[in-house]
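Example for tutorial group B:
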């Protein structure tokens, strides 16, 4: 059974650089890249899912949660994220999700996102 879990890197500029470096160094394991948006509030969260390593069953999904404000012009952080993903052969999928403030804790928020990803066949279902 594949276990999918979010690993939160943080919300700052350095965290997005770390996410981009994870993409570059693990490009062979890259499953899919995402940009989660909270809709009207326009807050963005770049994330990337990697296939399990070796014979493992753990699928990590690294995320910089709600650290980027959306707007009419794309931020430099999102541009760098897109470039890193595209260099690794993935076009980031934009997915609208509810903001984390709608949930009592982060685990509920991540279960909400995981459900959306599974329903849309963007990550594998539980087996």
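The residue assignment follows.
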């Amino acid at each position: 059974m594949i276990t999918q879990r979010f690993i939160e890197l943080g919300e700052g500029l350095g965290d997005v650089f770390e996410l981009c470096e994870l993409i570059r160094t693990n490009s062979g394991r890259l499953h899919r890249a995402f940009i989660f948006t909270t809709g009207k509030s326009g807050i963005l969260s770049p994330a990337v899912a990697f296939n399990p390593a070796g014979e493992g069953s753990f699928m990590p999904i690294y995320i910089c949660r709600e650290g980027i404000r959306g707007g009419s012009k794309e931020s430099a952080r999102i541009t760098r994220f897109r470039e890193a993903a595209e260099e690794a052969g993935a076009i980031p999928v934009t997915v609208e999700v509810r903001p984390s403030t709608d949930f009592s804790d982060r685990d509920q928020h991540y279960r909400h996102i995981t459900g959306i990803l599974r329903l849309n066949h963007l990550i594998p279902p539980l087996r």
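Residues 3-119 form a domain with the hypothetical protein tt1805 fold (CATH 3.40.1530). Compare this with the pattern of hydrophobic and polar residues in the output above.
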